[in-house]
Amino acid sequence: MQNLPEPGNGYTAQNIQVLKGLEAVRRRPGMYIGGTDQRGLHLLVLEIVYNSVDEVIAGFGDRVQVTLFEDGRVKVEDNGRGIPVDRHAESGVSAVETVMTMLHAGAKFGAGTYKVSSGLHGVGASVVNALSSWLRIEIRREGNLYSQEYAHGIPQTELKVEGEAEGSGTTVIFRPDEKIFGPLEYDFDYLAQRCRELAYLVPRMEVSLCDLRTDREVTFYFEGGIASLVHYLNRKKEVLHPKAIYMSKNVEGTAIEVALQYNDGYSELALTFANCVNTADGGSHLTGFRAALTRSLNDYIHKTKANSKNGNRNGDTSLSGEDVRSGLTAVISVKLDEPQFEGQVKAKLGNPEVKGQVESVVAEGLSEYLEQHPNEAKRIIDKCLTAARAREAARRARELIFRKTPLEAGTLPGKLAECAEKDPSRCELFLVEGDSAGGSAKQGRDRRFQAILPLKGKILNVEKASADKMLAHEEIRALITTLGVGIADQIDLSKLRYHRVIIMTDADVDGSHIRTLLLTFFFRNMVELIGGGHLFIAQPPLYRIQAGKESHWVYSEPEKEVLLESLRGKKLEVQRYKGLGEMSPEQLWETTMNPETRIMLQVGIEDAARADEVFHMLMGEQVPPRKAFIQAHAKNVRNLDV
Predict the structure, then answer these.
(1) How far apart are CA 456 and CA 437, in angstroms?
(2) Which band of pLDDT confidence, cut at 50, 70 and 90, is reported for residue 639?
(3) Phi and psi dihedrals of 478, rounded to 5?
(4) Cβ distance 119 to 146 under 8 Å?
(5) Per-residue DSSP letters for 383-432?
(6) pLDDT digit string (tens) for 271-326?
(7) What is the distance between the alpha carbons of residues 195 and 114, in angstroms, rounded to a whole number?
(8) Per-residue CA distances from 113 to 54, 108, 116 (Å)
(9) What DSSP character marks residue 582?
(10) Could you tell me if 157 and 12 are in contact, meaning their C-beta atoms sit under 8 angstroms apart?
(11) Which of these, 65, 43, 80, 77, lies nearest to 211 by C-alpha position?
């Protein structure tokens, strides 16, 4: 046997640390819940909710109640069977304690208990317990009420009988650890939307959310399933057919449901779910749906020669995936025994067999619908063919844009001021309104890594424009060329020339409008840029308050009031900045562009359906919803100095 060398450099087996129990979860929470931001905080709530929903799906119970307390505690209660309380043979403790303290322990790993489950693969309850400073579980089962308390995932009491109880079910009350998550700030609207989705996905299940902090309460109960969800998502849009196209079938143990409806817009909204979990990044079920949609509509066109009736004499029009998804709202829900999610946050479904299963169900169901509803089919086909013609016009416009390389800045109407750095990960691009602000930004920037693209006036509202009209707009062409990643289905983030794209507009009404127009463009055409964490909003100061020789930069009205109170009695000079061009280059660098001192907001998407609704409402053709929104929120605007 070869002699092994003596350990050197102080690195020995003693340096290898083995974390026991739930200690690994507390040490590296991001590995289990994706992060310790607000999204991770909400995931704790949803993991316990998912466990309750699994009981309903299994046929036990029909009610889930969620309560948010003022002190940060959360209570989730259901009327299912209740977690078993007898001693577990392998762990030596009760089944309740086993589930709450051991990773990968639960009924979801056994055969026959749950055919469909949506928790974190058996780690959900234990992870929530580990990341909570305090947790109490109560179980109503076989006429008794059982309870046990934990702190940081460690049992503080034995499982005990509290007394008698009617009915059955499980109640979990927990308080996430502030040392891990910071302030416990729950977003009622976000959780309400998740509860609404679950009620749609599991018909005849009642889901309620009560917020004791604000006395808000909502209860959801639907019998129409995902078809009703599609109607809800399209409620503020003009639809091409009154009823959603619905299809469902069980294929090799996978329950598949699909509902879709076309509207008169240009964008696509497709929500995907696997075992009731919102798979925001799609996956194999979305891939199968899109393949079947494109193939079925093309087959119908060729079969009925619909393209010939729409001006194509050769009868050889072929729709692309982009064409058939123009103005589409769809919900795809699958329930399967062994879901394979990518990452613990379950953003994407990976089961390869699901693609073919969904594709076969959609192809069969959609073909049958088109045959039986010729009038609705004609409206859908006309919509898709119109999108195809716009796509062809957009293709010609794109070819015109990219005829010269993005590095030939002379082709850019906005006159890009390029930076010297060539590594995209170190570069940032400021999108600035107007020549005045652009001039200050160019002089104040760090030329090594900061590029400036001034935009003339307000860009086109892409929510109301087709792709060809959008690409005919000079400023949008300049923006697309400068970023270099392409748009829509052809986007390639590996070609992004600046890993920080920063919207820097004036702190007035026009600046807010320009910022909204840019956000609309990015959401509709470069959503991957947002998902990749590359889009930011600069926060220029509203005021400069001079107190003697001291200058104070103020970024909000409340901050101004507090500062003025603290400086009472001193001679003050208050200057309100309405535009970036009013600042000197040095001031703009100090307050808004210097990475060491600036404040920026990173743009993200937590709820794609809600974002789609808001953009359509604020930027779309329909005036009444926008008017109602403005009237409802006008009271929130205070001291707007324009």
Answers:
(1) 11
(2) very low
(3) -65, -40
(4) no
(5) HHHHHHHHHHHHHHHHHHHTTS-TT-GGG-TT--B--S---GGG-EEEEE
(6) 999 999 888 889 999 999 999 999 999 999 988 875 555 544 444 568 999 999 99
(7) 21
(8) 10, 7, 9
(9) G
(10) no
(11) 65
Q: Are strands 206-211 and 63-68 parallel, antiparallel or unpaired?
A: parallel
Q: For tokens 């003596």, what's the residue? A: 6
Residue 335 — φ and ψ, nearest 5°?
A: -130, 120
Write the CB contacts of 149 (distance below 8 Å, at least 6 apart in sequence): 134, 135, 136, 137, 155, 156, 157
d(CA 99, CA 87): 12
Amino acid at 353: E
pLDDT tier at 89 (50, 70, 90 boundaries)? confident
Task: Note whether 259 and 334 are within 8 A (CB).
Answer: no
Q: Which residue has the higher pLDDT, 399 or 575?
A: 575
| Collapsed DSSP state (helix, strand, coil) of residue 293 | helix
Residues 6+ apart with CB under 8 A from 391: 320, 322, 323, 467, 468
Task: Give the integer Cα–Cα distance in Å for 241 and 141.
Answer: 49
Residue whose token pair is 């308390």: 149
Closest CA to 32 of 180, 154, 190, 183: 180
Residues 6+ apart with CB under 8 A from 501: 428, 429, 431, 483, 529, 534, 535, 536
Joined together, the tokens standing for residue 23 give 């200690």
pLDDT band at 556 (very low <50, low <70, confident <90, very high): confident
Asked if residues 437 and 579 have their Cβ atoms less than 8 Å apart, the reply is: yes
Task: Name residues whose C-beta falls within 8 Å of residue 297's C-beta, 6 or more positions apart in sequence.
Answer: 319, 324, 366, 370, 380, 381, 384
Q: Which helix (H) or strand (E) holds 515?
A: helix 509-525
CB-neighbour burial class of residue 598 (10 A; exposed 0-12, middle 13-18, buried 19+)? middle
Instruction: Name which of 352, 17, 397, 43 is nearest 186 in CA terms.
Output: 43
Q: What is the DSSP letter of 146?
A: E
What's the pLDDT score for residue 273? 94
The pLDDT of 595-624, averaged and rounded, is 82
Total Cβ atoms within 10 A of residue 566: 10
Taking the CB of residue 449, how many other CB atoms lie within 10 A of it? 17
Q: Tell me the whole-structure pTM to 2 decimals.
A: 0.70
Q: Which residue has the tokens 């930027």?
A: 619
- Number of helices (H) and strands (E), helices first, in the chain? 21, 22
Catalytic residues: 433, 506, 508, 510
What is residue 603's DSSP assignment?
-
What contacts 24+ positions apart, CB below 8 Å, involve 433-439? 433/457, 433/505, 433/506, 433/510, 433/511, 433/514, 433/580, 434/579, 434/581, 436/579, 436/580, 436/581, 437/504, 437/506, 437/579, 437/580, 437/581, 439/581
CB 100 within 8 A of CB 137: yes
- Compute the average pLDDT of residues 614-631: 75
Q: For the residues of 338-398, what is the DSSP string, one character each?
A: S--BSTTTT-SB--HHHHHHHHHHHHHHHHHHHHH-HHHHHHHHHHHHHHHHHHHHHHHHH
| Contacts with 422 (C-beta within 8 Å, 6 or more apart), sequence order | none
Give the separation between CA 525 and CA 522, rounded to whole angstroms.
5
User: Which residues are registered as beta bridge partners of 273?
Assistant: 278, 333
Residue 152 confidence (pLDDT) above 80: yes
**Counting beta carbons within 10 angstroms of the beta carbon of residue 309, is it exposed (0 to 12), middle (13 to 18) or buried (19 or more)?**
middle
Question: Which DSSP state fits 548?
Answer: T
3-state secondary structure 115-136: CCCCCCCCCHHHHHHHCEEEEE
Q: Which two tokens stand for residue 96?
A: 């309740």
